[in-house]
Amino acid sequence: MKTLENYIDEFKEKLKIESDYQLSKEIKVTRQQISKIRNGATSIGREKCIRIAAGLKIDPLEIIATVEATKEKNPELRAIWIKLAKEKSTGSHTKVRV
After folding, report:
1. What is the per-residue pLDDT across 76-94, written as a single tens digit (0 to 9) for each?
2. Rg of the chain's alpha carbons, rounded to an integer?
């Protein structure tokens, strides 16, 4: 499963951005937030996930599921988010049973 850092790096590369400062302006977060994302100390909201997904031309749920899997404490729910993120990244369809 990709990480949020992988997605922001792909976004940075796709836009031919050279610095995290420029990246932060595109995503509409602070430069410090980019650094915290890279260090695993923070995440981003759904709006930012959608912005990145639009730039990468992928389903926003792929990034949202990745972010939610990282934050989720409940092992069962975390497994569902991980499965969804993996399936979205491969283009599969998911049936979630709760």
Report:
1. 999 999 999 999 988 754 4
2. 13
